[in-house]
Amino acid sequence: MSEKVVVVGGGLAGLSAAARLAHNGYQVTLLEKAPKLGGRAISIPLKGFNFNFGAHAIYARDKSILRKFESEMPLHVDWKDFTPSKAFYDMGTFTTPMPATLEGLYRTKVLDSQNKIRFAYEVFKTMTSIERGEDGVLIGDYLKNEPEQIRDLLLTVASSNFFTNEPEKIPSPLFFQYYKRLFSTNRAVSYIGGGWQAIVDSFAKIIEDNGGNIVTKEKVMEVQLEGKWIRTIVGKNDTYQADHFIFCIPPKELSNLFADSSYQNYFTEYQNFSPTQVVVYDIGLSERIASPYTYIYQKAHRVFITDISYYDETCVPKGGQLTQAIAYLNAEEIAEGKADEKVVLIESIYDKHFPGWREKLVAKRVSKKATVQEIKCIEDQRLMPVKFYGLPNAFFAGDWCQGEGQLSELSFTSAYDATSRIMKNSSLNQTHLA
Ligand SMILES: Cc1cc2nc3c(=O)[nH]c(=O)nc-3n(C[C@H](O)[C@H](O)[C@H](O)COP(=O)(O)OP(=O)(O)OC[C@H]3O[C@@H](n4cnc5c(N)ncnc54)[C@H](O)[C@@H]3O)c2cc1C
């Protein structure tokens, strides 16, 4: 008899965890409260366009955990590599290439020639761990003795990778750890053909092909414990028993689930941390507007536009174009209702770089408060562990959990970690080894 695992939450973390275990012979049940799988990685079809709720950029493809999943199971990922020479900064009065390649570094106007050499040296120091940051020191402070151009560029880069307009608040060790990985990759940014939906479907197929059970519209309401062991979880429609449980739902949901137990306080700290939130403004156009860039970052207001359909033609009707604009928000801006101002700002940036877009507009999707990451990695905000000592058969995964990278990389790496722990200690594994 194979061991039973119940996975709660059908976002990228839950799907990848369930698929890996099902592929390795576990009897898996995946429970998702929504009618559709995918969580924040869903696609929204509208008038022939396929809007991704979130972007589907994968950073450091050759070191990414998706590559590992791909090598272990029949996961289909249609990689579409980003063209770095088409990435530009909008500096207000001029546009200039990003120093994302050697050629970009040579051509960019964000650095003078002396600082270009210095920047290359900074990259070298980061890659070789000569520069590691310092515990308790934020990157804004850590870089304060750097020349203004270098500091400004490093914070701008961090702003776009961490989806934040407060890059100076990123802990310096995390900053250097992140960029050590990113600078050492041959493919810093890639997209996925078919968007996240293709990955969602592929994980779901692996679960079902291996006898796994996927139950949608099943909100998990309660956990029942015997001492420190979880024995049963209670859903809206049914109850479920298993040997191991992986919870891929955010801390606030976990706090509700464990409300009647002494374990609720495990989650309170993480529930109170602030998320990374943005304004998203996607437009679907009837025909392409020619542009020298596929990514333009407006530096003054920290807004970027990506021409998604340049990389993934499947998201548009023939000849059409789909672009995504993202403006970062911090807690004060949300409280002060600045999201509406950002919408107007984004439209003006579209006017500047995609003139005529209003006449060609077929469909648009605006979200004034999209949660990119449940726990924003700034200051003393910590990510949640994948496992607590006090709950032996419970595991946790999601972009609020400890792992590598940021955004979905955290979902995937924590899911990989949780499933590795189950497989390492499982009797099923012992049988396989014997
Ligand atoms: C605008 C935007 C842009 C983004 N861009 C990128 C990008 O370029 N690159 C990148 O890597 N990432 C990006 N992301 C982030 C990425 O989408 C997320 O990190 C990832 O999808 C999170 O997956 P998850 O499984 O960890 O969490 P979620 O997607 O939140 O999944 C949690 C799931 O649990 C379900 N659930 C909750 N409570 C219960 C319950 N009680 N019972 C049953 N089910 C429950 C929810 O319905 C949900 O499906 C972006 C996100 C947004 C919003």
TrEMBL record:
<dbReference type="InterPro" id="IPR036188">
    <property type="entry name" value="FAD/NAD-bd_sf"/>
</dbReference>
<comment type="similarity">
    <text>Belongs to the carotenoid/retinoid oxidoreductase family. CrtN subfamily.</text>
</comment>
<dbReference type="Pfam" id="PF01593">
    <property type="entry name" value="Amino_oxidase"/>
</dbReference>
<dbReference type="GO" id="GO:0016491">
    <property type="term" value="F:oxidoreductase activity"/>
</dbReference>
<feature type="domain" description="Amine oxidase">
    <location>
        <begin position="12"/>
        <end position="259"/>
    </location>
</feature>
<dbReference type="InterPro" id="IPR002937">
    <property type="entry name" value="Amino_oxidase"/>
</dbReference>
<protein>
    <submittedName>
        <fullName>Phytoene dehydrogenase-like protein</fullName>
    </submittedName>
</protein>
